[in-house]
Amino acid sequence: MSTTQHRVLGGKIVQPSSRRQSTSVFGNLDWFTVLIYFVLVALGWMNIYAVVYSPDNVVNIFSFDINSGKQLLWIGTGVILMIVLLVVDYKVYEHLAYPIYGGIILLLLFTLAVASPVAGSRSWLELGGGVRLQPAELAKFATALAISKFLSQVSLRQQKMRDQMILAAITFLPAIIIILQNETGSALVFGAFILAFFREGMSPLILIIGGSAAAIFILTLLVPKLYLLIGIAALMGLAMFLDYRLMRRFKTMIALFVLVVGMVFSVDYFVNDVLQPHQQNRIKALINPEADPLGYGWNVTQSKIAIGSGGFWGKGFLEGTQTKFDFVPEQSTDFIFCTIGEEHGWVGSTVLIALFLLLMMRIVYIAERQKSVFGRTYGYCVVSVIFFHFVINVGMTIGLAPVVGIPLPFFSYGGSSLWSFTILLFILLAIDANRNRELVR
Amino acid sequence: MNYLENRKYVIQAIFLVVGVVYALRLFYIQVVDSSYKQAAETNAIKTVIQYPFRGLIYDRNGELLVQNTPVYDLMIVPKEARNIDTLRLASMLDITLEDARERFKKARAYSWVKPSIFQQMLSTQDFAHIQDNLIDFPGFYINARTARGYPHQSLGHALGYIAEISPKQLEDSTYAGYRPGDYIGKAGIEMAYEEYLMGKRGVKYKMVNVRGIDKGSFKDGAYDTLSIAGQNMVSTIDLDLQAYGERLMNGAKGSIVAIEPKTGEILAYISAPFYDPNLFTGKDYGKNYMQLLKDPDKTMFNRPIMADQNPPGSIFKLTQALIALEDGVIDPNTRYACNKSLVNCHPHPSPLDLRGAVQHSCNPWFFQAYKALINQGKSKNTFTDTSIGLKDWREHVLTFGFGKKLGIDIPGEKSGIIASTELYDRVYGKDRWKYSTIYSLSIGQGELGVTPLQMANFMAIVANKGYYVTPHLIRSIGEDGKPLAENYERHYTSVKPHHFDPIIEGMAEVVRAGTGRKASLGKVGITVCGKTGTAQNPQGPDHAVFVAFAPMEDPKIAIAVYVEHGKWGGQSAAPIAGLMIEQYLTDTVTIKEQEKWVLSREYLNIRSK
């Protein structure tokens, strides 16, 4: 990696590695990322307060009676957690990756066995004293560690079927248990690791096929099947006409088309018979929330109204009406973005999006400067998870993604979520702070 | 390795694309598309119309005639009412499940999209309970309004009623500011004094949460306006007298109008058959209204001011005599023989002077007196002379308030008919008619139409000896009870006061010893002056008329009683007038035999002679 890129991406804060003399973790810590982390956490905290704020009954932002006070407690314990993560010998993460992973899998199974259902979900573990833990959140960093460890030993490019199967198993085992816990939203996050695989050599075809499949799925729900198929056939024909090599693979193309036809016709079956009713509704809400604005379209409609009413500059801090008066459900957790949109307008929303982009770009940059495959893969795993959360969480509030109950990283109310992302990110920062001690493999 | 490292650009590009797409999408819904802002307002800011309390109406003694009762109606919009837990709804309203289903059916039958009342007049506790649970019942909402209440079930024709503003009125710019669903006075005092009674509407902007629960005022009420209650009014009606009159007229058809002569204040206003004004306040307003409208007795016909097609009969002889005196063609001692060849009469002493003629209602006497009035020899041509005479006569008559609207303060008044040269010219041709054509006017028949209100007003004129104050139903607007100046203007007739004396004396004789004996209050020392009349009715039994005022020395009440098919004024209308006068002047009724007679309705069975 060249120093030129350092300047472009890192700005002033990044020093050329040759000048990095300190052996202290804190001396080598990427303070820029830490800064973004705290900005996001602080903004989230203020917005959590804005949600519960009521002009009739003003409660101090620090009060433990309300969510903002409780969140402050999570933030405080989060700081302790990050210090612990940074102080611990960074080697631990690589060496203990599999035991941590295994432990978490057992914890997930244990939770599934003992948890009493909360709102249909069996993912919460009662720790006593009213404190609850959602092990599914912890599974994200554990799986990321396991994937990184595995990929640091094998190479995806070698196209060994066995290795790929193992990798898939590592990735999807926790996801399956989480689905069994009835937390499909959290399980979907594990699909995001595909970005990390892509970076580590997975065939781009999988990315393209995955994207196309998603596109065909959505289009099937929007466009009459016949027109859709004619359109796809026309596109394939055009592709073959433009590229004679495809012409020679005529049979493959036909097979592909048959596959598409099969998929188009199985979408109905999938939506109506495989998905649970609430999942069906989320799909329908994405396609056309106005069809039932008081029913399945409620969340999306209300969230768009809240954000849309913010205008360019927003209504001002604590001045929102839509989020405050409970029109938007789950407004301090999954729909926290609505508060930003309503009270801080397009400017505030865009600043938040920019902050996330900055964070994700920075993580990519950090990942790329790792000397070990383990560190780099882990970095990409971290950014994949954050990106997935960001895309789905913000997307669902503005009607561009289906409603999936996952939080906005660092921002949403909730201890499990905040801790999980803190662990995820600060393990990376711990590894990064020690990257100069690592030998290139 | 290098080519894999380049994949970071692909990943970063994906991040950037998503970021840009989201920012653009946000720009669209936050800045470009303004519909979300409106939706947010309708979401969280509720415009609550503050309906002012409609003004109350009291009678002249402070008795409440019209009041307001707050009512909460549970409304339903069938289109939006989906997935309703009918069982829970029924138990909440304390009705049976079948009943609830029936109401759904009814609402749907009425309109799929328009709101209709599911349950009207919820109790206050029910209202609070239902309001809290409304979120579970989409398509239902509470409509708060005040209904008019009439504690005495009387005076319907004068008070009028309020009802929802009609689509036609909404288009009319006179009613600017009214909104669909608003209530407006539709008849009577409610309509005439609408602008005072309605008050001023206020608007409140409230913030509500998703369950519709109040979260305080919007911008601390900066845009709110307060409603101003309508003004209370004091009516001229004496409720006791009104109620008594209604009792006397119950089952009959006709009118009673009683006026305080000096002030023009209407003391009683009865149009029989009458109706309970409460019929027009409930849900069945439309049904009740149509029923009353179609009823063969024409209950909705506001007889005191609208029945203007009937000739006044003999009571008009008084008018004729007054004008003849004023014109100097007769004096109080003028005597005419009862010449039955001129016009039919009944047995009585003859010849009579003016007082006697009034007492015995001698038809030939008035034939001759009226002839003297009409044919004064101002032209040698009989036809022209009659025409001139009629024209002059008519001018006199109009000053008595006949043939024109008196201007009572409720809508719908008719003007009546007074024969005119134009009318006869049109019917018979110019110079083709003379006194022999029009002589029936002399005894109050022919081309004459007088409303009961005009008759009562005429009595007020006689009592006042020459003037009247426009009869009215509202004495004052507002709490302080300051009378409305415009209602107390005096209108003088063309007849000088001293001419009234012989007429009044004759009228006293009518009651003492003539056709109006059944109105006599001699027993309690009250001298009643009256005159009977019979309005010829080609369709059936004649209508009976009696007009009177009392006491003779210092008149406090002038009254006209009109009984359809009552045949003889002396038999039906006179006792009613006597009873009304006694009730008003003494607050008691001693002439019980008359009351019994009137209530027995026997007078309707007297055979016509």
What can you see in these coordinates?
- The complex is a heterodimer of chains A (441) and B (609).
- Chain A is mostly helical.
- Chain A has two domains: 3-202 and 275-437, no CATH class; 203-274, no CATH class.
- Helices cover 66% and strands 2% of the residues of chain A.
- In chain A, strands 1-2 form a two-stranded antiparallel ribbon.
- Chain A starts with a helix and ends in an 8-residue tail after the last helix.
- In chain A, 42% of the residues are buried.
- The longest helix of chain B is centred in the N-terminal third of the chain and has 26 residues, at 7-32.
- The interface between A and B is large, with 52 and 39 residues.
List the helices and strands and how they pair.
The complex is a heterodimer of chains A (441) and B (609).
Chain A: H1 3-10, H2 25-28, H3 31-52, H4 67-87, H5 91-95, H6 97-114, E1 125-128, E2 131-133, H7 135-151, H8 161-180, H9 184-188, H10 194-199, H11 204-222, H12 225-242, H13 244-248, H14 250-274, H15 277-287, H16 298-308, H17 337-368, H18 373-397, H19 415-433
Chain B: H1 2-5, H2 7-32, H3 35-44, E1 45-50, E2 57-58, E3 64-76, H4 86-93, H5 97-110, E4 116-122, H6 124-133, E5 140-149, H7 156-159, E6 162-164, H8 167-171, E7 183-185, H9 188-192, H10 194-197, E8 202-208, E9 214-217, E10 233-235, H11 239-249, E11 254-260, E12 265-272, H12 285-294, H13 303-306, H14 316-327, H15 354-360, H16 363-374, H17 382-399, E13 417-418, H18 421-428, H19 435-438, E14 448-449, H20 452-464, E15 467-469, E16 474-477, E17 490-492, H21 500-513, E18 529-535, E19 543-550, E20 557-563, H22 569-586, H23 592-600
Parallel strand pairs in B: 2-10
Antiparallel strand pairs in B: 1-8, 2-3, 3-4, 3-5, 6-7, 8-9, 10-16, 11-12, 11-20, 13-14, 15-17, 18-19, 19-20
Helix pairs in contact in B: 4-5, 11-22, 14-16, 15-21, 22-23
